[in-house]
Amino acid sequence: MKQNKVAITGGIGSGKSTVSSILREIGYVVFDCDEISRQVACSVEVLEKIKKEFGSKFVVGNQLQRKKLAEFVFADAQRTKRLNEIMHPPVISELKRRLEECGEKIVFAEVPLLFETGMDKMFDNIWIVVADENERINRVQKRDSLDEKSIKDRIKNQTDYEKSQFSAHTIIKNDGDLKKLAQTVRQAAEMLNG
Prior knowledge:
With 194 residues, this protein is an alpha/beta fold. 52% of the residues lie in helices and 15% in strands. The strands form 2 sheets. The protein has a 5-stranded parallel β-sheet with strand order 2-5-1-6-7, with helices on both faces. Strands 3-4 form a two-stranded antiparallel ribbon.
C-alpha cells in the first residue's frame, strides 16, 4: 500500500493546530512536530548542546526553560539558525520513524518549519494554512501571552507563505470562522481519497 503523507504548515498563529484537530476529529492520524520537539528537548544530548551553545541559564536541572530560550533565540536570526541546527535532526529522525510505523493510507504531520528544514521532500502533499498577519498576532497574544514584538520577531524568521511560489500546494485559508474552516478541511481531505 502506497502511503500518502501530507504536511500541514504555515506561519505562527495561522491555525495549523486547529486544522490538525479537525482532521483528528474526522479520524485521521496527525503527528505534531512541536510535540516531538518538546520530547526531543528533554533528551540529555540535546540539553547539553543547548547549554553549550546558549549557556546553562536556559537549562535548570534537566528542564529546558523554553519561554526564556525562545525570547532569547527568536530575537536574532543567527541564534534561531543555531537552535534549529541542534533541534531539527532528532525531530526529523523521530517524525520519519513515526511515519514509517504508521499503517494508515493517509497520514498527516503538522510541521511548522517545513520548507526551512527541507522536510517538504518527505511529503506527497502539502497543505499551507494562511491567515491575516494581524489576526495571527492576536491569536498568539491570546494563546501564549507574548508581546507583539516577540511575535513579529518569530514571524520575521519564518517563511512568507503568501508568496506565489507556494501556489501549487493546497492553501487552507483560516479567517477565524471555525465552521467554514472545518468544511474546507473536510473537502481537502476528501480530495486526497480521490
